Amino acid sequence: MSAVPAIHVNVEDKLFQNRYKVDHGRPHIQIKKPEVCANDCKDQSCTFVCPASCYKAEGNGKVTLITDGCLECGSCRVICTEHSNVAWEYPRGGHGILFKFG
Amino acid sequence: MAEKFDAIVVGAGPSGNAAAYTMAKAGLKVLQIERGEYPGSKNVQGAILYSDALEKIIPDFREDAPLERHIIEQRMWMLDDNSFVGTHFRSEDYNKPPYNRYTIIRAQFDKWFSSKVREAGALLICETTVEKLLMDGDTVVGVRCDRIGGDVFADVVVLADGVNSTLARKAGFHPDIQAKDVALAVKEILFMPEEVIQSRFNIGEESGVVIEMMGSVTEGMVGTGFLYTNKDSLTIGVGCMLSDFKSNPNRTSPYALLEKLKRHPSIAPLIEGGEMKEYAAHLIPEGGFHAIPKVYGNGWMIVGDSGGFVNAAHREGSNLAMTTGRLAAETVIAAKGAGQGFAAKQLKAYKDALDASFVMKDLKKYRDLPEVLHTSPQFFTTYPNLVTGAMQKMFTVDGIDKKTKEREVLGSFKSARRLTGLVGDAFKLWRAVR
Predict the structure, then answer these.
(1) What is the DSSP letter of B173?
(2) For A90, nearest residue in chain B (alpha carbons)
(3) Is the residue at A30 inside a domain?
(4) Residue spans per domain, chain B
(5) Cα distance from B412 to chain A (closest Cα, Å)?
(6) Cβ-Cβ contacts under 8 Å for B175 (sequence gap 6 or more)
């Protein structure tokens, strides 16, 4: 199979089209123990599977999470089976993504 | 809140609306709780509406439901990086009312469905997230909302809270969904003038086309792409099993996969000039029959995506959602009439009704398909590549005789899968869908 050139996509450009009501200071998803991501998780698959790119590999081995652009799909919780290191709740009522079309 | 309801429905998607509508219509006192600003604001679907399931709930829905286009043509494409081989099925029979299915925009459709629920007499509260189920022993007696004084009580709680099934999971009714049993899909909506859509897709003012795609675009992952025509917009998306995304050695993000699909030389001209106005992602429960959890107990029932009711083989979900919502509601109505309470013994009628309906019959028919596809990624890349390669060889006129070309095509199939592999694949697929 021929190698497909990597496509660079800026997901922020996509998320910019969406409507959100961010619950400032109250992220609905949290990394339970950041040191588990840094020390124990080899593949850090949340950093590329998350469709809103909320999880970022910081280069120093750490993973950071900013939930402002979250699409509330649940993938991060479901794939984090080995370490169960994601505390996942829905946002408070009325907050988070507000799909105009869905 | 001391007020007690006959039923509380958590969620205002297709299954929750079907359940709330059916119960309210029968005169039950129904409370429906939705975490979004309005019904539909948290909901994502392709989206195709199958008429039959909704007709059984609201027979005259066509009079005022927001429908985009009725589908007259289904295209199935196998893609490699540069080409596609497709089958198109178009029938004038699909162009005569009453139409069998439509494209819809869920935020608009769910708002409409919800207005019918309220007209029927149910009380809807939005912008309210249910935190957990209230239990008395092993019986669900109500829900706790994230509002002050947010405890509400009911004889039955219908869980229509979507694929993540947060409430049943927290209550220990079933474990978390597995990555192998769920697909992650992303999509965009692209706006363009109606006339452009009509000329590009060879359709009229009301009619529409669906394209389903498989092939190298998913990088060997089990998954498909889709392109749907709405009134003045196109929906384009791609979904693959979440476990495959996680283990894909390319570490490709879902949005990069979608971008690749949009740039495919066979797709790009169809969507050119479209103005992107929303990007969405959603999980789809595709584990099928074997992944369906226990869907009823003392004072509770699970409907729709929350119960895993999706027929992935036929891309059906919203119709199963509405049907399960309706059957759960009918069970509650009958139980209330019988006056014997709402324990598991009474609510078992819901499971019996599911088993007797197309919902469980279809899921049972395809029960082995998820496993077969999971262990046979060749169906999603190798075969599409072989078929497009064969077509290219046979249709390219270059002085090589056709007999030689046939031998080369056969050779490409044999070297990719060997004869035993080819026969084995055909048998596996046949057994999984028979």
Answers:
(1) S
(2) B129
(3) yes
(4) 4-67+104-174+293-365, 180-285, 370-433
(5) 13
(6) B169
**Phi, psi (deg, nearest 5) at residue B190:** -120, 120
- pTM assigned to the model: 0.96
Cβ–Cβ under 8 Å, residues B154 and B19: no
Domain assignment of residue A60, yes or no: yes
Quick check: is A8 in a domain?
Answer: no
Tokens of B164: 């993540």
The reply to whether A13 falls in a domain is: no
Domain made up of B180-285: CATH architecture: 2-Layer Sandwich (3.30)
Structurally, chain A folds into a number of domains equal to 1
The interface predicted TM-score (ipTM) is: 0.95
Q: By residue range, what is the domain housing residue A49?
A: 26-92
Contact B255 A14 (CB under 8 A): yes
Half-sphere exposure (CA, 13 Å, Cβ side) for B255? Answer: 21
Minimal Cα–Cα distance from A33 to chain B, Å?
20
Q: Which CATH number fits domain B4-67+104-174+293-365: 1.10.760.10, 3.30.365.10, 3.50.50.60, 3.40.50.300?
A: 3.50.50.60
Long-range CB pairs of B401-404 (<8 Å, 24+ gap) are none
Residue B383 in tokens = 């075969």
Nearest CA in chain A to B234: A101
Is residue A102 within 8 Å of B13, Cβ to Cβ?
Answer: no
A93 and B CB contact within 8 Å: yes
Q: Hey, what are B331's tokens? A: 């069970």
**Phi and psi of B159, rounded to 5°?**
-90, 105
A60 and chain B in contact, CB less than 8 A: no
Cβ(A25)–Cβ(A50) below 8 Å: no
State which H helix or E strand residue B9 sits in.
strand B4-10
Q: Determine contact, residues A1/B384, Cβ cutoff 8 Å.
A: no
Q: A5-17: per-residue pLDDT in tens?
A: 567 899 999 999 9
A96/chain B closest Cα distance in angstroms: 8
Residue A78: which CATH number? 3.30.70.20
Q: How far apart are CA B367 and CA B365, in angstroms?
A: 6
Distance of alpha carbon B344 from the chain centroid: 28
Mean per-residue pLDDT pooled into runs of 10, chain B (434 residues) = 87 98 98 98 97 98 98 96 95 96 98 98 97 98 91 97 97 96 98 98 98 95 97 98 97 97 98 98 97 98 98 95 98 98 98 98 95 88 92 94 95 92 90 85
Which residues in A lie closer than 8 A to residue B263 (C-beta atoms)?
7
d(CA B434, CA B417): 23
Partners of B177 on chain A (C-beta within 8 Å) are 78
Residue A14 contacts B, CB cutoff 8 Å? yes
Contact B278 A72 (CB under 8 A): no
